[in-house]
Specification:
Chain B: Part of a SCF (SKP1-cullin-F-box) protein ligase complex. May interact with auxin and auxin-responsive proteins. Chain B: One of its GO terms (cellular component) is nucleus. Chain B: This is F-box domain-containing protein. The complex is a heterodimer. Chain A is of the alpha+beta class. Chain A has twelve helices and five strands. Helices cover about 35% and strands about 5% of the residues of chain A. Chain A has a five-stranded mixed beta sheet with strand order 2-1-5-3-4, covered by helices on one side. In chain A, about 45% of the residues are buried. Chain B is of the alpha/beta class. In chain B, about 30% of the residues lie in helices and about 15% in strands. In chain B, the strands form two sheets. Chain B has a 21-stranded mixed beta sheet, with helices on one face. In chain B, helix 2 crosses helix 4 and helix 17 runs parallel beside helix 18. The chains are: A alpha+beta, B alpha/beta. The interface between A and B is large, with 68 and 71 residues.
Chain lengths: ~325, ~625
């Protein structure tokens, strides 16, 4: 996420890839098709569309592409989308500079290997249809992501929808908090639903020590401050109830207010963190608000004592000033 | 002769010339069915022709009561009109393998005394996000028809259907004697609907929610509190997929007043402390879904492993599952029951071999085992050494990606085959496989009915020889003479499908992904697999030619699914035109493409007596 703030030179391209805050839906587009094209630079996207077809056909295209890649490092210019054979998977845009991509790798499955894949690997993968391919061909990560790339800026892992064939509640078992293994719809399905039902995505928020989680619609707030107040409102009631009924130590009347102060600047008893697409847990407040809205998948009000060492402590630049 | 073994409604072509209705020269809508005017509503008696010999018919009905298998009943119904009528009045379980194959009205008109309905909706690939949201499979029209027709209905089982809260409420209110509700891989409902079921179905015995997608809602309903306040008849309550928090005290109380409860599977919000309390209140449980299986200390403090073990020792458990967020420290607590366990599901528990082995070594009677590949080949070896009675093994991947390390391989599969000779079902996800291991399994496990091997890297060959996996799968179909379900993967050529067609005579379900090189593959399958019911294909180089090679077989199948192959609109239209009793649905990823030659992304075709459905969303084009 930090990279995004630094990459001020990127905004135009960045914005192209994140049209009206929908990029995560786009990124996880199921039917992996044209709709992703429309959000990316369509022209570029078409050129880079790769598919697995009959081995012979594929070979030609690969060679074409490789020749052109070798001459133009950053952007493979082959147009593969010839026969209109739109597959269920789509190559990522290879030319997106790393700065943008690293923040947006889709690491849902816990395999952070996208960065290591280069054009060579992709070539190896493409060839596999026609002759016994190399055994480990570091090939595609599963779920669709529109913009994964690698340091060489080349080649892409065509994400394949629904492969391997595992139901969504069996995915993400590696992630700590998200390993609640609930058979909820994955983000992609939820986004599909959003696509059809125009429902605004709600972000779950949990608070340590409170069993019931809540949901918030981040788009109704326009700043971190407002979010913080909203969080306080959401959980204050629960805290009161739990303190009344529970075995916890006696609290003063005004204790609740104190709980929620300092959520954002790391000074309070609790602090607000969020999870992004990769399942990383990040302190809230560092990035511009609207980027946060599109990036945050889940929120948590954590006891500051439970933060990992490298996260805890008031970070100087953490004010909600964006 | 091809059989529609499971369908309660048989396809026209099969019946023509055989059935009482005669051959296919009749009207479109009633091709072969006899001219039977069913009664209105539940009885089915009004308007019926009076048979010449009422006594004979009554005797027949009494005899037919003993026929329970759908296949037998389908056969009996074809003998003559009298048998057809008698069978229709005595069929108790209505199995509809494709909810769009027949209209609710028609089903209800034919069968008079149904007590038990099973309905299946979406194609299986919907589980893997290949079917966009909103595709269909709504249960509403069925509930609307079943309600008035079968007021004595006791059981509904739905799989991959869209079920709304209103549907659940309607079910709850339509059937006063309702006993069992089973929802598998369904979606569209939430705790509101569950509350209606709990509240209104006073005789409920079974509420099984299995792998459903519970709708998100802003206001959770405390549905557990809605069960009757007196003693209930509950025998099975499975809700581990309802991932939202629930009222635990209400559950405790419910369990305490449900003396018949044998099966309880809770969600991950239940820590061991609470689990222990539940076990104490329901010592008669035989199936337990253990929730999170970690500690979340309450006023009583942290539960010790030995205390938990005491609870297990006092139980009569045969099946364990859950372990959703397991703390391996607590695993030893289940040792006391291991010797009795017939079923163990660790498929959400990321355990190493070291953590698994002490447990599995005690499970000599295990018949069903689900596990994550984190246990590795070593863990599987331990399973093989102990569980000689194993019938079902499912190994799921922790990292479901193509380039993950993968901890299980051909070594594990070989070990299993050497230890578990009675294996009937295997589902195995891996990154590396060899033909030799698969061949070994085909020889060591002759009782295999279901063989589903998923080599996660696409087009992966034998890791040692570099050859395609043709011979391995060939051996499976050759040697496993009872095989009815097969899923293939890895690098496969037409040769594999030639084997499948030649030897896979009992195969009903075949799943193909990233395989084959020419249309001959499809042809081999269509021509050879005479019992084929369900064929699902993705990302394989099959074109219209391959599709058309199946024309004369489609009426004998429940459905064909193909996505990301090389089909074009023209080919699909050809099929639609030549096969009027098929519904041919085409879905496009790129709606703005026009023309006959452009590729079809998703094809789903199925035989149907109901014709094209009227609830298709815009992205579905019915040809």
């Amino acid at each position: 996420m930090e990279e995004e703030c630094k990459d001020k030179s990127l905004p135009p391209k960045l914005l192209n890839l994140i049209p009206d805050g929908r990029e995560w839906e786009v990124k996880e587009e199921e039917d992996g098709g044209r709709s992703r094209n429309t959000s990316l630079d369509a022209d570029e996207e078409k050129k880079l569309e790769l598919k697995l077809g009959l081995p012979g056909v594929q070979e030609k295209k690969i060679q074409q592409q490789q020749q052109e890649s070798s001459s133009a490092h950053s952007k493979p210019t082959t147009s593969i989308a010839t026969t209109g054979a739109k597959r269920g998977f789509l190559a990522a845009v290879g030319a997106i500079p790393e700065g943008y991509n690293q923040g947006h790798q889709d690491n849902k499955e816990g395999c952070g290997n996208e960065l290591t894949l280069g054009g060579e690997n992709m070539a190896g993968e493409r060839k596999k249809g026609c002759c016994p391919p190399p055994i480990s061909h570091g090939s595609a990560s599963v779920h669709r992501h529109s913009s994964s790339s690698n340091p060489q800026g080349r080649g892409a892992i065509p994400p394949v929808v629904g492969w391997p064939p595992i139901r969504s509640f069996r995915r993400n078992l590696t992630n700590g908090t998200s390993s609640k293994q609930s058979p909820e719809r994955t983000n992609d399905e939820a986004d599909d639903k959003a696509k059809f039902c125009k429902k605004r995505p709600l972000v779950k928020i949990n608070m340590d020590g409170i069993l019931i989680g809540r949901k918030v619609d981040l788009t109704v707030y326009d700043s971190y401050q407002k979010l913080s107040s909203a969080v306080e409102e959401l959980f204050r009631g629960f805290l009161e109830v739990q303190r009344d009924l529970s075995w916890a130590e006696s609290g003063e009347q005004g204790a609740e207010e104190k709980i929620f102060s300092g959520l954002l600047d790391g000074t309070g008893e609790y602090t607000l963190v969020y999870e992004d697409n990769d399942g990383d847990r990040i302190l809230v407040g560092d990035i511009p608000w609207n980027i946060f809205v599109s990036t945050a998948k889940r929120l948590r009000v954590m006891r500051r004592s439970e933060l990992p060492h490298d996260m805890s402590g008031a970070a100087p630049g953490r004010a909600a000033d964006c | 002769m091809r059989d529609a073994e499971e369908g309660s409604e048989s396809p026209p072509s099969q019946m023509s010339g055989d059935g009482p209705g005669g051959s296919g020269g009749e009207s479109e809508s009633d091709r072969w069915m006899p001219d039977l005017r069913g009664g209105n509503g539940g009885g089915g008696g009004g308007g019926r022709w009076a048979p010449p010999d009422q006594v004979l018919e009554n005797v027949l009905e009494s005899v037919l009561e003993f026929l329970t298998a759908a296949r037998d009943r389908n056969a009996a119904s074809l003998v003559c009109r009298s048998w057809y009528r008698a069978e229709a009045q005595t069929r108790r379980e209505l199995f509809i393998g494709n909810c769009y194959a027949v209209s609710p009205r028609r089903a209800v008109e034919r069968f008079g005394g149904v007590r038990d309905v099973v309905l299946k909706g979406k194609p299986r690939f919907a589980d893997f996000s290949l079917v966009p949201y909103g595709w269909g499979a709504y249960v509403s029209p069925w509930v609307a028809a079943l309600g008035p027709a079968y007021p004595r209905l006791e059981r509904i089982c739905l799989k991959r259907m869209t079920v709304s809260n209103d549907d659940l409420a309607l079910i709850a209110k339509s059937f006063p004697l309702f006993k069992e509700l089973s929802l598998v891989c369904c979606e569209g409902f939430s705790t509101h609907g569950l509350a209606a079921i709990a509240e209104w179905c006073r005789y409920l015995r079974v509420l099984d929610l299995i792998e459903d997608y519970i709708d998100e809602e802003d206001e959770l309903v405390d549905w557990i509190s809605k069960f009757p306040e007196s003693n209930t008849s509950l025998e099975s309550l499975v809700f581990d997929c309802v991932s939202v928090p629930f009222n635990f005290e209400a559950l405790e109380a419910l369990v305490a007043r449900s003396p018949a409860l044998r099966r309880l599977r809770v969600n991950h919000h239940v820590p061991v402390e609470q689990l222990r309390s539940l076990m104490a209140k329901a010592p008669q449980l035989t199936h337990l879904g253990t929730g999170a299986f970690r500690s979340e200390p309450g006023p009583g403090g942290v539960l010790s492993v030995s205390e938990l073990a005491t609870s297990f020792a006092a139980s009569r458990l045969l099946c364990l599952s859950g372990f959703r967020d397991v703390n391996p420290e607590y695993l030893p607590a289940i040792h006391p029951v291991c010797v009795n366990l017939t079923s163990l599901n660790f498929s959400f528990a990321s355990l190493t071999a070291e953590e698994l082995i002490p447990v599995i070594r005690n499970c000599a009677r295990l018949r069903t085992f689900w596990v994550l590949d984190t246990v590795g080949d070593e863990g599987l070896r331990a399973v093989a050494e102990t569980c000689s009675d194993l019938r079902e093994l499912r190994v799921f991947p922790l990292n479901a990606t193509e380039d993950s390390e993968g901890s299980v391989s051909d070594v594990g599969l070989q070990a299993i085959s050497e230890g578990c000779h009675k294996l009937e079902l295997i589902l195995y996800f891996c990154q590396r496989m060899t033909n030799a291991a698969v061949i070994a399994m085909s020889k060591n496990c002759p009782d295999l009915v279901t063989f589903r091997l998923c080599i996660m890297g696409r087009h992966r060959p034998d890791r040692i020889t570099g050859e395609p996996m043709d011979d391995g799968f060939g051996a499976i179909v050759m040697n496993c003479k009872k095989l009815t379900r097969l899923s293939v993967s890895g690098l496969l050529t037409d040769k594999a499908f030639a084997y499948i067609g030649k030897y896979g005579k009992l195969i009903k379900t075949l799943s193909v992904a990233f395989a084959g090189n020419t249309d001959m593959s499809l042809q081999f399958v269509f021509e050879g697999c005479t019992r084929l019911q369900k064929l699902e294909v993705r990302d394989s180089p099959f074109s219209d030619k391959g599709l058309l090679s199946g024309l004369s077989y489609f009426y004998n199948m429940r459905f064909l699914w193909m996505n990301s192959c090389k089909l074009t609109m023209r080919g699909c239209r050809d099929v639609a035109q030549q096969m009027p009793d098929l519904v041919v649905e085409v879905m496009k990823d790129h709606p703005d493409d026009e023309g006959e030659m452009e590729t079809v992304d998703k094809l789903y075709l199925y035989r149907s007596l109901a014709g094209p459905r009227n609830d298709a969303p815009p992205f579905v084009n019915i040809l």
